[in-house]
TrEMBL record:
Function: Component of the exocyst complex.
GO cellular-component term (any): exocyst
Alphabetized GO MF terms: phosphatidylinositol-4,5-bisphosphate binding
Domain Exocyst complex subunit Exo70 C-terminal: 51-201
Protein name: Exocyst subunit Exo70 family protein
UniProt GO BP: exocytosis; protein transport
Keywords from the named record: Exocytosis, Protein transport, Transport
InterPro entries given in the database record: Cullin_repeat-like_dom_sf, Exo70, Exo70_C
Source organism (scientific name): Brassica cretica
Family as reported in the entry's similarity comment: Belongs to the EXO70 family.
Keyword Cytoplasm annotated: no
């Protein structure tokens, strides 16, 4: 992808407009194919999280290059640029959902409260299982994502901020509500593996390359 943009000077871009458009379309073809595969697959079985990373990497690179070159932006046009930006945002949203929905779902209150003739409150056994599920899923996502590459520093930072804005507040709230129930039971350290501070420093960081 980068070779396409670096192989011509800004002066020659206008002279070779047709060629540039053709080569840009070729470079983006794989991205658009993957995007169509994702949007046309209601079950999501064809669109993996790595596909979302692939789309974001490539579309983000194209958009930044076009925005930084007035000549190239004139050739591509604002309409197509907006379409690319929409594709990027769609992929970013899908990435977050595919990656973190199950983790965030483990931090819900549903299924934790019990009521009966003799007692009501929080089910400690259900709560322990919920913390175990969170720990397992978080560690699995961390393990997998730590091997993925996002070369662009701005994109990496945007993904990191997005993760922090969703995961950290949800975990802080859940921990604040239920920590006491676990600490009053047996072997609390088996379930309370992460403080909020631990989670912030342990949260997955996508590799530069």
């Amino acid at each position: 992808m980068e070779e396409i943009f670096n192989s011509e000077s800004s002066e020659s871009i206008l002279v070779q407009a047709t060629e540039i458009q053709s080569r840009l379309a070729e470079a983006g073809r794989g991205t658009l194919v993957e995007f169509e595969k994702c949007t046309n697959d209601p079950k999501g079985s064809l669109c993996t999280t790595k596909t979302h990373i692939f789309i974001m990497n490539n579309v983000h690179y194209i958009v930044q290059k076009v925005k930084s070159s007035p000549e190239l932006r004139e050739i591509i046009g604002d309409l197509y640029l907006r379409r690319l930006t929409g594709i990027f945002r769609h992929a970013a949203t899908k990435y977050q959902r595919a990656t973190w929905v199950r983790v965030l779902n483990s931090l819900r209150d549903e299924g934790l409260h019990v009521s009966g003739s003799f007692s009501s409150g929080v089910s400690k056994s259900a709560l322990r299982e919920r913390f175990k599920a969170f720990n397992t899923m978080f560690e699995e996502v961390h393990r997998v994502q730590s091997t993925w590459s996002v070369p662009d520093a701005q994109l990496r930072e945007e993904l990191r901020i997005s993760l922090s804005e969703h995961l950290i507040p949800a975990y802080r709230s859940f921990l604040g509500r239920f920590r006491g129930h676990i600490e009053s039971g047996r072997h609390p350290k088996n379930y309370l593996k992460y403080s909020v501070e631990n989670l912030e420093t342990t949260a997955p960081h996508l590799r530069r390359s």
